[in-house]
């Protein structure tokens, strides 16, 4: 769950001689850069120490924005940033709000908008807070990739954001150029975490420099360290941003006291008690100016510290209520509000709404034709409830049980309901997105949409003297030049695979399909083919990579070979290539790769899996583009000179066993698909079978020992 905590600090630690002007927890002398006047990074490159790879960085700025800065709607206004066209991050004014944007990818992710907490895909953005024109701003933001925490402060009001996905480290300073405010005009070249986002206020083509109020004090800093959030009250229960708290059963909150700065993991010994305050929230606003719901003091004690609530003596929870609460750590008996106290995060939770509240959402389904697809939506309701299922379309339409292939069940267990949709005899016409609407007397709640896909082969090119698709999907290939008789040769095993295509005699025998979405509704893909690669060609191409099978328009996906050394690689959105093997020369070789919905790619040579990526390392888009065969994008430079046979594309990730079967069907050779399986631990001769030969290997050492001293001595 995405979590954003507002944090209001009076003071983290007692003031000291080295406390920073903007970031009190830092020594200003530790800043990597420290400016007191506006600065153009494009004109002054490489001004910051490289943090590459890096895991921690903090930006800090003091400025007084003008009315124009705060009201600019066409694009982001620069505060302080570092980086170039590939890597970097920075603070930006976006129509009166401060946002921290970060980027670690050369291209793509242009659908990134505000509050994008997915940094693993190369781009993200986090709101820091609101600012006002002609009012001094002191703001800072810390990014810690060790924990995925973005901690920020705007005039003492702080937010903690937990990134959903993030790398352990990246190039945090990019090209090492730093801009602070600049000169109030469009400033090309300043990136600092921006890209060509569909959101104009995060688009690097729309950047403005700042026009701060004349004569006001300015300061911009970047540090390689981060502010430590563990020195605050922490670990609240319920977790901050929790939803669907049941007012009928919920009776207390709890938290751990702030930690000792000198002894991590232990309570701060100076904490003598906890001032705890609860506020009524609305639309994410804690309404700090209103009278608190409840205030209490809890003496210091062991963690977790508990606070009873939801009673006539405290305050009572209601359906559809948002509650904010915070803890001010009392230091050495000081009164509430004393600057020595530690004021921690302002956490929040929401009670069950009066309308149905989602508990679990429908999940994507991919089944074979004729199988049953099942979708479930679980929700709570304090009153009687009903449900209906819909399929997205133009317009959306309700699924009715008068259809013999549709069944809808609604099961109740106390306040919890589960609505289940069964789609029997699934077929291609059933593909699409489905959602549920749950209803009670207070209103309706719509579930997330989930996809239904039919798993199948979406292209099959035997290359038996033609470019036709025999999968039934009509994704035929069209060559770039008229075919010649010499390009059709005997295949891998002519009796089984028929003919093959030889592009060494006709480079432009390469081909492409009309646009289609190979991974539609599945986010998965398998490509399988036989190839005989003779080695490097002598074509005077600008580059060395030749396409095997690709859909590289719109940066979709591609599979290619380095013709110099037969190195195989795949790519995905972001052009972050993954190389995995070198192809044997002058022999028929079966190669395949799969891409799964959990963003894992697996690679096969001659039926055996030889490599697999970590989750999140490889992904594909669902763009409607041509598939290019024996080339990358229709250019003659990327066309490949080789022999090809039996090319298949599936819209799902085949298993190792299934791909071993594809290989076996041609060669008759068995493949050991799991040589490290637990039940093969005694396969001493490596033939993928535990048999008498392995027992014989053990018997050679029967009764051998290394005991000392020898018995009888």
TrEMBL record:
Asked if Lyase is a keyword of the record, the answer is no
Superkingdom of the source? Bacteria
Query: Cross-referenced Gene3D superfamilies, in alphabetical order?
Result: 2.60.120.200, Immunoglobulins
* Phylogenetic lineage: Bacteria, Pseudomonadati, Planctomycetota, Phycisphaerae, Sedimentisphaerales
| The protein's name in its UniProt record | Immunoglobulin I-set domain protein
Q: Which residues form the signal peptide?
A: 1-19
Give all residue intervals belonging to the Ig-like domain.
356-453
Q: Which UniProt keywords apply?
A: Signal
Pfam families linked to this entry: I-set, Laminin_G_3
